[in-house]
Design a protein that fits this description.
Layout (H helix, E strand, L loop, with lengths): L2 E5 L9 H8 L4 E7 L1 H4 L3 H20 L5 E4 L2 H12 L3 E5 L4 H16 L3 E5 L21 H8 L26 H4 L9 H5 L5 H16 L3 H4 L12 H6 L4 H13 L3 H23 L24 H8 L5 H13 L4 H14 L4 H11 L5 H12 L14 H8 L4 H6 L9 H9 L19 H13 L4
Parallel strand pairs: 1-2, 1-4, 2-3, 4-5
Helix pairs in contact: 6-13, 9-12, 12-13, 13-18, 15-16, 15-21, 16-18, 17-18
Bound molecules: flavin-adenine dinucleotide (FAD).
Flavin-adenine dinucleotide binds next to helix 11, helix 13, helix 16 and helix 18.
Length: 470
Protein backbone atom coordinates (compact mmCIF):
# COMPACT_ATOMS: atom_id res chain seq x y z
CA UNK A 1 0.00 0.00 0.00
CA UNK A 2 1.27 3.54 -0.76
CA UNK A 3 2.97 5.92 1.65
CA UNK A 4 1.56 9.43 1.85
CA UNK A 5 4.38 11.96 2.15
CA UNK A 6 2.82 14.97 3.84
CA UNK A 7 4.96 17.96 2.84
CA UNK A 8 4.89 21.18 4.83
CA UNK A 9 8.09 23.18 5.33
CA UNK A 10 10.36 20.70 3.60
CA UNK A 11 9.99 21.66 -0.05
CA UNK A 12 13.09 19.83 -1.30
CA UNK A 13 14.15 16.45 -2.60
CA UNK A 14 17.65 16.07 -1.17
CA UNK A 15 18.52 15.64 2.50
CA UNK A 16 14.92 14.77 3.14
CA UNK A 17 14.78 11.89 5.62
CA UNK A 18 10.99 11.42 5.32
CA UNK A 19 11.13 11.26 1.52
CA UNK A 20 14.16 9.00 1.69
CA UNK A 21 12.41 6.60 4.05
CA UNK A 22 9.26 6.60 1.92
CA UNK A 23 11.24 5.80 -1.24
CA UNK A 24 13.31 3.13 0.51
CA UNK A 25 10.16 1.41 1.75
CA UNK A 26 9.66 0.07 -1.77
CA UNK A 27 6.06 1.28 -1.74
CA UNK A 28 4.51 3.88 -4.04
CA UNK A 29 4.85 7.42 -2.66
CA UNK A 30 2.09 10.03 -2.80
CA UNK A 31 3.44 13.52 -2.00
CA UNK A 32 0.73 15.86 -0.75
CA UNK A 33 0.54 19.45 0.39
CA UNK A 34 -2.48 20.35 2.53
CA UNK A 35 -3.78 23.88 2.82
CA UNK A 36 -5.20 23.56 6.32
CA UNK A 37 -6.11 26.13 8.92
CA UNK A 38 -2.55 26.34 10.29
CA UNK A 39 -1.19 27.15 6.83
CA UNK A 40 -4.12 29.42 5.97
CA UNK A 41 -3.26 31.53 9.01
CA UNK A 42 0.21 32.64 7.91
CA UNK A 43 0.93 36.20 6.79
CA UNK A 44 0.49 37.63 3.30
CA UNK A 45 4.10 37.61 2.02
CA UNK A 46 5.13 34.21 3.42
CA UNK A 47 1.92 32.70 2.06
CA UNK A 48 2.54 34.12 -1.39
CA UNK A 49 6.15 32.89 -1.25
CA UNK A 50 4.97 29.48 -0.06
CA UNK A 51 2.80 29.29 -3.19
CA UNK A 52 5.85 29.89 -5.37
CA UNK A 53 7.75 27.19 -3.50
CA UNK A 54 4.92 24.67 -3.85
CA UNK A 55 4.64 25.32 -7.60
CA UNK A 56 8.37 24.88 -8.05
CA UNK A 57 8.50 21.65 -6.08
CA UNK A 58 5.54 20.24 -8.02
CA UNK A 59 7.56 20.59 -11.24
CA UNK A 60 10.62 18.95 -9.72
CA UNK A 61 8.52 16.04 -8.51
CA UNK A 62 7.17 15.61 -12.03
CA UNK A 63 10.77 15.40 -13.31
CA UNK A 64 11.15 12.41 -10.99
CA UNK A 65 8.04 10.68 -12.30
CA UNK A 66 5.99 11.81 -9.33
CA UNK A 67 3.36 14.47 -8.60
CA UNK A 68 2.35 16.84 -5.86
CA UNK A 69 -1.24 16.34 -4.79
CA UNK A 70 -2.85 19.50 -3.44
CA UNK A 71 -5.79 19.34 -1.07
CA UNK A 72 -7.52 21.93 1.07
CA UNK A 73 -9.25 21.33 4.40
CA UNK A 74 -8.55 20.09 7.90
CA UNK A 75 -5.41 17.97 7.70
CA UNK A 76 -7.03 15.07 9.53
CA UNK A 77 -10.01 14.98 7.12
CA UNK A 78 -7.83 15.37 4.04
CA UNK A 79 -5.53 12.56 5.13
CA UNK A 80 -8.48 10.32 5.92
CA UNK A 81 -9.97 10.97 2.46
CA UNK A 82 -6.64 10.34 0.77
CA UNK A 83 -6.15 7.10 2.66
CA UNK A 84 -9.61 6.02 1.56
CA UNK A 85 -8.98 7.06 -2.06
CA UNK A 86 -5.57 5.41 -2.36
CA UNK A 87 -5.50 2.59 0.17
CA UNK A 88 -2.37 4.15 1.73
CA UNK A 89 -1.11 2.42 4.85
CA UNK A 90 1.32 5.04 6.10
CA UNK A 91 1.77 8.80 6.44
CA UNK A 92 5.28 10.26 6.77
CA UNK A 93 6.23 13.87 7.50
CA UNK A 94 9.09 16.09 8.67
CA UNK A 95 8.67 17.53 12.15
CA UNK A 96 7.69 21.13 12.87
CA UNK A 97 8.07 22.79 16.24
CA UNK A 98 5.73 25.77 16.45
CA UNK A 99 2.89 25.34 18.95
CA UNK A 100 0.06 25.16 16.37
CA UNK A 101 1.78 22.62 14.12
CA UNK A 102 2.88 20.51 17.10
CA UNK A 103 -0.65 20.36 18.53
CA UNK A 104 -2.07 19.40 15.12
CA UNK A 105 0.61 16.79 14.40
CA UNK A 106 0.31 15.15 17.79
CA UNK A 107 -3.42 14.80 17.44
CA UNK A 108 -3.15 13.48 13.87
CA UNK A 109 -0.50 10.92 14.80
CA UNK A 110 -2.79 9.56 17.49
CA UNK A 111 -5.84 9.52 15.21
CA UNK A 112 -3.95 7.73 12.42
CA UNK A 113 -2.53 5.19 14.85
CA UNK A 114 -6.03 4.57 16.19
CA UNK A 115 -7.10 3.80 12.62
CA UNK A 116 -4.24 1.33 12.23
CA UNK A 117 -2.26 3.61 9.88
CA UNK A 118 1.49 3.96 10.36
CA UNK A 119 2.23 7.62 11.20
CA UNK A 120 5.88 8.55 11.31
CA UNK A 121 7.63 11.88 11.80
CA UNK A 122 11.22 12.58 10.79
CA UNK A 123 13.97 15.13 11.49
CA UNK A 124 15.03 17.59 8.85
CA UNK A 125 14.03 21.14 9.82
CA UNK A 126 16.67 21.46 12.54
CA UNK A 127 20.25 20.37 13.14
CA UNK A 128 19.49 19.05 16.62
CA UNK A 129 16.16 17.94 17.98
CA UNK A 130 15.10 20.07 20.96
CA UNK A 131 15.11 17.07 23.31
CA UNK A 132 18.67 16.15 22.29
CA UNK A 133 20.37 19.25 23.67
CA UNK A 134 20.39 19.69 27.43
CA UNK A 135 22.27 21.74 30.00
CA UNK A 136 24.40 19.99 32.63
CA UNK A 137 21.40 19.91 34.97
CA UNK A 138 19.01 18.52 32.39
CA UNK A 139 17.09 21.62 31.32
CA UNK A 140 17.09 23.53 28.04
CA UNK A 141 19.37 26.44 27.26
CA UNK A 142 18.11 29.91 28.04
CA UNK A 143 21.43 31.52 27.18
CA UNK A 144 22.99 31.21 23.75
CA UNK A 145 26.75 30.86 24.37
CA UNK A 146 26.63 27.70 26.52
CA UNK A 147 24.30 26.10 23.98
CA UNK A 148 26.74 26.95 21.20
CA UNK A 149 29.59 25.42 23.21
CA UNK A 150 27.52 22.30 23.76
CA UNK A 151 26.71 21.72 20.10
CA UNK A 152 29.57 23.21 18.09
CA UNK A 153 31.57 19.96 17.95
CA UNK A 154 28.58 17.63 17.64
CA UNK A 155 28.22 15.50 14.59
CA UNK A 156 25.36 16.28 12.25
CA UNK A 157 24.26 13.58 9.79
CA UNK A 158 25.69 14.08 6.28
CA UNK A 159 23.04 15.34 3.85
CA UNK A 160 21.15 12.58 2.05
CA UNK A 161 21.05 12.45 -1.74
CA UNK A 162 17.80 13.09 -3.58
CA UNK A 163 16.17 9.80 -4.62
CA UNK A 164 16.88 8.97 -8.27
CA UNK A 165 13.25 8.06 -8.76
CA UNK A 166 10.14 8.36 -6.64
CA UNK A 167 7.93 5.27 -6.99
CA UNK A 168 4.52 6.32 -8.30
CA UNK A 169 1.13 4.74 -7.50
CA UNK A 170 -0.73 3.05 -10.36
CA UNK A 171 -3.46 5.69 -10.07
CA UNK A 172 -3.09 9.23 -8.76
CA UNK A 173 -5.74 10.72 -6.48
CA UNK A 174 -7.31 13.99 -7.62
CA UNK A 175 -5.64 17.27 -6.83
CA UNK A 176 -6.62 20.94 -6.53
CA UNK A 177 -5.08 23.48 -8.89
CA UNK A 178 -2.49 25.68 -7.16
CA UNK A 179 -3.91 28.81 -8.85
CA UNK A 180 -7.28 28.05 -7.29
CA UNK A 181 -5.75 28.42 -3.84
CA UNK A 182 -4.84 32.06 -4.61
CA UNK A 183 -2.07 32.06 -2.04
CA UNK A 184 -1.02 35.53 -3.14
CA UNK A 185 -4.48 37.03 -2.67
CA UNK A 186 -3.62 38.83 0.56
CA UNK A 187 -0.62 40.60 -0.98
CA UNK A 188 -1.91 44.13 -1.27
CA UNK A 189 1.35 45.37 -2.67
CA UNK A 190 3.45 44.83 -5.74
CA UNK A 191 4.18 41.14 -5.78
CA UNK A 192 5.75 41.66 -9.20
CA UNK A 193 8.36 43.94 -7.63
CA UNK A 194 9.20 41.40 -4.96
CA UNK A 195 9.24 38.50 -7.38
CA UNK A 196 12.44 39.88 -8.96
CA UNK A 197 14.20 39.41 -5.60
CA UNK A 198 13.10 35.85 -4.93
CA UNK A 199 15.56 33.01 -5.30
CA UNK A 200 13.25 30.08 -5.75
CA UNK A 201 13.73 26.42 -5.04
CA UNK A 202 16.31 23.91 -3.96
CA UNK A 203 18.76 24.31 -6.87
CA UNK A 204 18.89 28.10 -6.44
CA UNK A 205 19.44 27.68 -2.70
CA UNK A 206 22.27 25.21 -3.26
CA UNK A 207 23.88 27.50 -5.85
CA UNK A 208 23.70 30.37 -3.41
CA UNK A 209 25.21 28.24 -0.64
CA UNK A 210 28.08 27.22 -2.95
CA UNK A 211 28.66 30.82 -3.97
CA UNK A 212 28.53 32.03 -0.38
CA UNK A 213 31.00 29.38 0.75
CA UNK A 214 33.37 30.01 -2.18
CA UNK A 215 33.26 33.77 -2.31
CA UNK A 216 31.92 35.17 0.95
CA UNK A 217 32.30 32.99 3.98
CA UNK A 218 35.99 33.80 4.57
CA UNK A 219 35.03 37.43 5.26
CA UNK A 220 31.61 36.71 6.77
CA UNK A 221 32.59 37.56 10.36
CA UNK A 222 33.81 41.02 9.27
CA UNK A 223 31.20 41.75 6.64
CA UNK A 224 27.96 40.44 8.07
CA UNK A 225 27.04 43.67 9.87
CA UNK A 226 27.24 45.98 6.86
CA UNK A 227 23.86 46.10 5.15
CA UNK A 228 25.11 47.60 1.87
CA UNK A 229 27.42 44.65 1.27
CA UNK A 230 26.37 41.26 -0.01
CA UNK A 231 28.10 39.70 2.98
CA UNK A 232 25.58 37.20 4.36
CA UNK A 233 24.22 33.94 3.00
CA UNK A 234 20.59 35.13 2.45
CA UNK A 235 19.61 31.51 3.05
CA UNK A 236 16.99 32.28 5.70
CA UNK A 237 14.31 32.26 3.00
CA UNK A 238 14.99 28.76 1.59
CA UNK A 239 15.60 27.53 5.15
CA UNK A 240 12.15 28.72 6.13
CA UNK A 241 10.41 26.71 3.41
CA UNK A 242 12.82 23.81 3.73
CA UNK A 243 14.16 24.34 0.23
CA UNK A 244 17.55 23.69 1.79
CA UNK A 245 18.33 21.84 5.01
CA UNK A 246 20.34 23.36 7.85
CA UNK A 247 22.50 20.21 7.80
CA UNK A 248 23.63 20.99 4.25
CA UNK A 249 24.61 24.51 5.32
CA UNK A 250 26.42 23.15 8.39
CA UNK A 251 28.46 20.65 6.38
CA UNK A 252 29.35 23.23 3.74
CA UNK A 253 30.65 25.47 6.54
CA UNK A 254 32.62 22.61 8.07
CA UNK A 255 34.30 21.96 4.74
CA UNK A 256 35.24 25.65 4.49
CA UNK A 257 36.59 25.49 8.05
CA UNK A 258 38.80 22.54 7.20
CA UNK A 259 39.83 24.32 4.01
CA UNK A 260 41.19 27.26 6.03
CA UNK A 261 38.32 29.78 6.09
CA UNK A 262 37.91 29.11 9.77
CA UNK A 263 36.77 32.36 11.40
CA UNK A 264 34.00 33.18 8.94
CA UNK A 265 32.77 29.63 8.65
CA UNK A 266 32.60 29.18 12.43
CA UNK A 267 30.64 32.41 12.73
CA UNK A 268 28.26 31.16 10.05
CA UNK A 269 27.69 27.90 11.96
CA UNK A 270 27.12 29.97 15.07
CA UNK A 271 24.35 31.90 13.31
CA UNK A 272 22.76 28.62 12.27
CA UNK A 273 22.78 27.72 15.96
CA UNK A 274 20.93 30.97 16.76
CA UNK A 275 18.16 29.53 14.63
CA UNK A 276 18.32 26.32 16.67
CA UNK A 277 18.36 28.30 19.91
CA UNK A 278 15.16 30.05 18.82
CA UNK A 279 13.51 26.75 17.91
CA UNK A 280 14.54 24.98 21.10
CA UNK A 281 13.22 27.87 23.18
CA UNK A 282 9.93 27.86 21.27
CA UNK A 283 9.62 24.11 21.70
CA UNK A 284 10.18 24.23 25.45
CA UNK A 285 8.36 27.53 26.07
CA UNK A 286 5.73 28.03 23.35
CA UNK A 287 4.78 31.37 24.88
CA UNK A 288 7.96 32.75 23.23
CA UNK A 289 5.78 33.53 20.21
CA UNK A 290 2.76 34.90 22.04
CA UNK A 291 3.84 36.94 25.06
CA UNK A 292 6.74 38.29 27.07
CA UNK A 293 9.13 35.45 27.75
CA UNK A 294 10.06 37.23 30.97
CA UNK A 295 6.62 37.69 32.41
CA UNK A 296 7.60 40.65 34.61
CA UNK A 297 7.58 42.61 31.33
CA UNK A 298 3.78 42.30 31.23
CA UNK A 299 3.74 45.33 33.55
CA UNK A 300 5.72 47.50 31.11
CA UNK A 301 3.73 50.42 29.63
CA UNK A 302 4.10 49.47 25.95
CA UNK A 303 1.69 51.03 23.52
CA UNK A 304 -0.46 48.47 21.77
CA UNK A 305 -2.40 50.91 19.55
CA UNK A 306 -1.41 50.03 15.99
CA UNK A 307 -3.32 52.96 14.55
CA UNK A 308 -0.95 55.55 15.97
CA UNK A 309 0.53 57.77 13.25
CA UNK A 310 4.07 56.86 14.34
CA UNK A 311 3.35 53.15 13.85
CA UNK A 312 2.00 53.86 10.38
CA UNK A 313 5.09 55.91 9.59
CA UNK A 314 7.29 53.05 10.80
CA UNK A 315 5.50 50.51 8.61
CA UNK A 316 5.61 52.80 5.60
CA UNK A 317 9.28 53.67 5.97
CA UNK A 318 8.55 57.31 6.67
CA UNK A 319 9.77 57.88 10.24
CA UNK A 320 12.26 60.49 9.09
CA UNK A 321 15.13 58.38 10.51
CA UNK A 322 16.92 57.30 7.31
CA UNK A 323 18.42 53.99 8.47
CA UNK A 324 15.05 52.90 9.87
CA UNK A 325 13.19 53.94 6.73
CA UNK A 326 15.76 52.29 4.47
CA UNK A 327 15.17 48.98 6.27
CA UNK A 328 11.39 49.25 6.15
CA UNK A 329 11.57 50.05 2.43
CA UNK A 330 13.95 47.19 1.73
CA UNK A 331 11.26 45.04 3.35
CA UNK A 332 8.56 46.44 1.03
CA UNK A 333 10.61 45.87 -2.10
CA UNK A 334 12.33 42.56 -1.36
CA UNK A 335 10.39 40.94 1.49
CA UNK A 336 13.67 40.76 3.40
CA UNK A 337 15.78 43.00 5.61
CA UNK A 338 19.39 42.84 6.68
CA UNK A 339 19.86 41.53 10.22
CA UNK A 340 21.65 44.64 11.51
CA UNK A 341 18.80 46.81 10.24
CA UNK A 342 16.15 44.46 11.67
CA UNK A 343 17.70 45.18 15.07
CA UNK A 344 17.72 48.94 14.43
CA UNK A 345 14.09 49.15 13.23
CA UNK A 346 12.96 46.87 16.06
CA UNK A 347 14.75 49.00 18.62
CA UNK A 348 13.23 52.18 17.21
CA UNK A 349 9.71 50.72 17.37
CA UNK A 350 9.99 49.24 20.86
CA UNK A 351 12.06 51.97 22.49
CA UNK A 352 11.83 55.32 20.73
CA UNK A 353 8.17 54.73 19.82
CA UNK A 354 7.47 52.66 22.98
CA UNK A 355 5.38 50.17 21.02
CA UNK A 356 4.82 46.61 22.10
CA UNK A 357 7.17 44.27 20.24
CA UNK A 358 4.15 42.22 19.15
CA UNK A 359 3.18 45.00 16.74
CA UNK A 360 6.53 44.56 15.04
CA UNK A 361 6.41 40.77 15.25
CA UNK A 362 3.00 40.77 13.53
CA UNK A 363 4.14 43.18 10.83
CA UNK A 364 7.23 41.11 10.06
CA UNK A 365 5.11 37.93 10.06
CA UNK A 366 2.93 39.52 7.40
CA UNK A 367 5.69 41.06 5.31
CA UNK A 368 8.83 38.89 5.44
CA UNK A 369 9.36 36.22 2.82
CA UNK A 370 11.78 34.56 5.26
CA UNK A 371 9.26 34.72 8.11
CA UNK A 372 10.06 32.11 10.68
CA UNK A 373 7.95 31.80 13.83
CA UNK A 374 10.87 31.08 16.16
CA UNK A 375 13.55 33.45 14.85
CA UNK A 376 11.05 36.28 14.48
CA UNK A 377 9.76 35.93 18.03
CA UNK A 378 13.24 35.61 19.49
CA UNK A 379 14.52 38.54 17.41
CA UNK A 380 11.76 40.84 18.65
CA UNK A 381 11.96 39.76 22.28
CA UNK A 382 15.74 40.01 22.16
CA UNK A 383 15.66 43.60 20.99
CA UNK A 384 12.74 44.58 23.22
CA UNK A 385 14.49 43.24 26.32
CA UNK A 386 11.68 40.88 27.32
CA UNK A 387 13.25 37.73 25.89
CA UNK A 388 15.77 35.09 26.91
CA UNK A 389 19.40 36.21 26.76
CA UNK A 390 18.08 39.59 25.64
CA UNK A 391 19.83 42.91 25.25
CA UNK A 392 19.04 44.99 28.35
CA UNK A 393 16.19 47.42 27.71
CA UNK A 394 18.25 50.42 28.74
CA UNK A 395 20.69 49.77 25.90
CA UNK A 396 18.84 51.91 23.37
CA UNK A 397 20.35 51.67 19.89
CA UNK A 398 21.18 55.10 18.54
CA UNK A 399 20.02 54.87 14.93
CA UNK A 400 22.27 57.74 13.89
CA UNK A 401 25.51 56.26 15.24
CA UNK A 402 24.45 52.79 14.05
CA UNK A 403 24.10 54.26 10.56
CA UNK A 404 27.50 55.97 10.75
CA UNK A 405 29.15 52.80 11.94
CA UNK A 406 27.52 50.21 9.69
CA UNK A 407 26.60 52.35 6.68
CA UNK A 408 29.41 54.91 6.73
CA UNK A 409 29.05 56.03 3.12
CA UNK A 410 25.23 55.93 3.21
CA UNK A 411 25.23 53.35 0.41
CA UNK A 412 22.47 51.35 2.07
CA UNK A 413 20.35 54.38 2.89
CA UNK A 414 20.77 55.75 -0.63
CA UNK A 415 19.90 52.38 -2.12
CA UNK A 416 16.45 52.53 -0.52
CA UNK A 417 15.51 56.18 -0.03
CA UNK A 418 14.86 58.15 -3.20
CA UNK A 419 13.79 61.48 -1.71
CA UNK A 420 16.54 64.07 -1.87
CA UNK A 421 18.57 62.24 -4.52
CA UNK A 422 18.87 63.83 -7.97
CA UNK A 423 19.18 60.44 -9.64
CA UNK A 424 17.85 57.76 -7.28
CA UNK A 425 18.74 54.14 -8.01
CA UNK A 426 16.13 51.63 -9.22
CA UNK A 427 15.95 49.96 -5.82
CA UNK A 428 14.84 53.20 -4.18
CA UNK A 429 12.32 53.90 -6.94
CA UNK A 430 10.96 50.35 -6.75
CA UNK A 431 9.53 51.22 -3.34
CA UNK A 432 6.92 53.46 -4.98
CA UNK A 433 5.81 50.56 -7.18
CA UNK A 434 5.83 48.10 -4.33
CA UNK A 435 3.79 49.86 -1.65
CA UNK A 436 0.05 49.38 -1.18
CA UNK A 437 -2.07 51.85 -3.12
CA UNK A 438 -3.47 53.42 0.03
CA UNK A 439 0.03 54.57 0.99
CA UNK A 440 0.34 56.31 -2.42
CA UNK A 441 3.55 58.28 -2.48
CA UNK A 442 5.79 59.78 -5.09
CA UNK A 443 9.55 60.00 -5.22
CA UNK A 444 9.15 63.77 -5.44
CA UNK A 445 7.39 64.02 -2.05
CA UNK A 446 9.52 65.65 0.64
CA UNK A 447 11.30 63.31 3.03
CA UNK A 448 9.65 63.65 6.46
CA UNK A 449 11.14 65.08 9.65
CA UNK A 450 11.67 62.51 12.42
CA UNK A 451 8.39 61.38 14.02
CA UNK A 452 10.41 60.97 17.20
CA UNK A 453 14.02 62.11 17.43
CA UNK A 454 16.66 59.89 18.97
CA UNK A 455 17.09 62.17 21.99
CA UNK A 456 13.38 62.43 22.78
CA UNK A 457 12.73 58.73 22.15
CA UNK A 458 15.66 57.60 24.25
CA UNK A 459 14.62 59.84 27.14
CA UNK A 460 11.02 58.62 27.11
CA UNK A 461 12.06 54.97 26.91
CA UNK A 462 14.56 55.24 29.76
CA UNK A 463 12.06 57.17 31.83
CA UNK A 464 9.46 54.41 31.41
CA UNK A 465 12.10 51.81 32.24
CA UNK A 466 13.25 53.57 35.40
CA UNK A 467 9.67 54.01 36.62
CA UNK A 468 8.55 50.49 35.76
CA UNK A 469 6.79 48.51 38.44
CA UNK A 470 8.94 45.40 38.41
P1 LIG B 1 23.15 34.83 7.65
O1 LIG B 1 23.88 35.93 8.34
O2 LIG B 1 23.75 34.31 6.42
O3 LIG B 1 22.97 33.66 8.72
C1 LIG B 1 22.81 32.30 8.34
C2 LIG B 1 21.53 31.74 8.90
O4 LIG B 1 21.59 31.71 10.32
C3 LIG B 1 20.31 32.55 8.55
O5 LIG B 1 19.81 32.23 7.27
C4 LIG B 1 19.36 32.16 9.67
O6 LIG B 1 18.74 30.93 9.41
C5 LIG B 1 20.30 31.98 10.85
N1 LIG B 1 20.34 33.21 11.63
C6 LIG B 1 21.17 34.28 11.46
N2 LIG B 1 20.93 35.21 12.41
C7 LIG B 1 19.93 34.73 13.17
C8 LIG B 1 19.24 35.22 14.32
N3 LIG B 1 19.53 36.41 14.87
N4 LIG B 1 18.26 34.48 14.85
C9 LIG B 1 17.94 33.27 14.33
N5 LIG B 1 18.57 32.74 13.24
C10 LIG B 1 19.55 33.46 12.69
N6 LIG B 1 15.22 35.28 10.76
C11 LIG B 1 14.39 34.51 10.04
O7 LIG B 1 14.84 33.55 9.40
N7 LIG B 1 13.05 34.77 10.01
C12 LIG B 1 12.50 35.80 10.70
O8 LIG B 1 11.28 35.98 10.66
C13 LIG B 1 13.36 36.66 11.43
N8 LIG B 1 12.88 37.74 12.09
C14 LIG B 1 13.74 38.55 12.79
C15 LIG B 1 13.22 39.65 13.49
C16 LIG B 1 14.06 40.50 14.20
C17 LIG B 1 13.49 41.69 14.95
C18 LIG B 1 15.45 40.24 14.22
C19 LIG B 1 16.38 41.15 14.96
C20 LIG B 1 15.97 39.15 13.55
C21 LIG B 1 15.13 38.28 12.84
N9 LIG B 1 15.63 37.16 12.13
C22 LIG B 1 14.76 36.36 11.44
C23 LIG B 1 17.05 36.78 12.24
C24 LIG B 1 17.97 37.33 11.16
O9 LIG B 1 17.77 38.70 10.98
C25 LIG B 1 17.83 36.61 9.82
O10 LIG B 1 17.87 35.22 10.01
C26 LIG B 1 18.93 37.02 8.86
O11 LIG B 1 18.90 38.40 8.61
C27 LIG B 1 18.78 36.26 7.57
O12 LIG B 1 19.76 36.65 6.64
P2 LIG B 1 20.82 35.61 6.12
O13 LIG B 1 20.16 34.35 5.70
O14 LIG B 1 21.65 36.32 5.10
O15 LIG B 1 21.66 35.33 7.43
Amino acid sequence: SPVILWLRRDLRLSDHPALDAACSSGRPVIPVFILDEVTEAIGAAPKWRLGLGIGHLAKRLEDKGSRLILRRGKARDVLRDLIEDTGAGAVYWSRLYDPDSMARDKWIKQALNDDGIEAKSFRGHLLFEPWEVETGTGGFYKVFTPMWKNVRERSVPEPLRAPAKIPAPSKWPKSDELEGWALGAAMNRGAHVMRAHIRLGEEAAMDRLDYFIDAKVADYADQRDFPARDGTSTLSEPLTYGEISPARCWHAALRAEHGGDAAGAVTFRKELVWREFAYHLMYHTPRLTTGNWREDWDAFPWTTDERRAEVRAWKEGRTGIPIVDAGMRELQVTGRMHNRVRMIVASYLTKHLMCHWKIGQDWFADQLVDWDPASNALGWQWVAGSGPDAAPYFRVFNPLTQAEKFDPKARYRNAWIAEGQADPPDTALAYFDAIPRRWARAASDAYPDPVVTHEAGRKAALNAYENREF
